Amino acid sequence: PVIHIFTHDSIGVGEDGLGAGVADLRRGDGLDGGLGADREECRGVERAVGGVHAPEIRGGDAPGAQHVDGGLEVAGGDVELAGEVVAGAHRHDAEQRWVVRARPGGVSFAGPLASAYTACLQSRTASRVLLTLADLSASDPDVMYRGLLELPWESHVGSDGTFAVHVVGESPDWLRHTQFAALRAKDAIVDRMREHTGERPNVDLASPDLRVSLRFARERVTVGIDLSGEPLHRRGYRQAGVEAPLKENLAAALLLRSGWAAMAAEGAAFYDPMCGSGTLVIEAAMIAAGLAPG
Fold first, then answer.
1. How many whole angstroms separate alpha carbon 208 and alpha carbon 91?
2. pLDDT of 49 strictly over 70
3. What are the backbone dihedrals phi and psi of residue 8, each rounded to the nearest 5 degrees, phi first?
4. Which helix or strand (DSSP H or E) is residue 6 part of?
5. What pLDDT, on the 0 to 100 scale, is given for residue 24?
6. Which of 67-71, 83-87, 118-122, 206-210 is least confident?
7. Burial of 258 per CB tally in 10 Å (0-12, 13-18, 19+)
8. What are the backbone dihedrals phi and psi of residue 188, each rounded to the nearest 5 degrees, phi first?
9. What distance in Å separates the CA atoms of residue 292 and residue 294, rounded to the nearest whole number?
10. Backbone φ and ψ of 40, nearest 5°
11. Are 165 and 182 in contact (CB under 8 A)?
């Protein structure tokens, strides 16, 4: 399967209970739906989907390719996140040639589903991990509906389960608000489930069994499953917030970019003279100790 990983949170929650973004999609805002450079990682489900096309880049064909770990190739983009991805994948299969590609707001790669789980557990810079199900035409809402209707939703959620739909991206001409896209996606999932099981799952924003992601790129939409649940920057150790807190995954990215992992391995000390809630210090300690953030 193709896995997409993002490093900032760009998914909003709609008032309709469908998980749609609260802001209108605006053409020209890019794949973050008007939220700037926000990136996220998404987690998936325990079922790989066959027939997913992975764009291939190999060796010298990759623009800006560089060696990150064990001869693995990375094509530009977020070096810290890409390095984490290929290192985790390499642990599963050191012989396979992994291909990682830069994407708006993150990176993507094709590999075994176990590597996506590793990303959820081990990645310090990711926010969400998404398992790609399909890339569909979104030339109009009915075309998108029919494409979604063909996907095997019954393999991912039970008829007595719950789901939520999250929408971001650069909108096609017919889409003025994420709520409409989320409603059409909900209709397709419910209609498919009724056809194949005789029952339908319910929508649950707070804690759904299945989180469905729609990422628009004008006339195309990438359909995925969010494997992360809550954004991965929420490590669980923060008991109280402070004014203008630093996200944990951003703190980790700054530390990795500074070369702290190598310095810590050599016994260096860490000092933060501007310490607020201690995010940098805690993330530095976790890197030094080799503790998995997930």
1. 31
2. no
3. -135, 160
4. strand 2-6
5. 28
6. 67-71
7. exposed
8. -65, -45
9. 6
10. -145, 160
11. yes
Q: Distance between CA 203 and CA 14 in Å, rounded?
A: 12
Kindly tell me if the per-residue pLDDT of 282 is higher than 70.
yes
156 phi/psi in degrees, rounded to 5 = -120, -20
The whole-angstrom separation of Cα 292 and Cα 122 is 5
Residue 15 and residue 199 in contact, taking contact as beta carbons nearer than 8 Å: no
User: pLDDT confidence of 190, banded at 50, 70, 90?
Assistant: very high
CB of 41 closer than 8 Å to CB of 106: yes
Paired tokens of 138: 């979104």
Identify the H or E element spanning 183: helix 178-197
Walk across the sheet containing 162-170 and list its strands: 65-67, 73-75, 99-103, 106-110, 2-6, 128-137, 220-226, 210-217, 162-170, 202-203
Identify the CA nearest to 254 among candidates 232, 283, 211, 286. 283
What confidence tens digit (pLDDT) does each residue in 111-121 have? 778 878 888 88
Q: Are 240 and 20 in contact (CB under 8 A)?
A: no
| Per-residue pLDDT reduced to its tens digit, 222-258 | 999 999 888 899 898 887 777 778 899 999 989 998 9
Spatial contact of 116 and 110, defined as CB atoms under 8 Å apart: no
Rounded Cα gap, residues 214 and 175, in angstroms: 13
What residue has token string 């923060």? 238
- Measured CA to CA, the distance from residue 30 to residue 199 in angstroms comes to 37
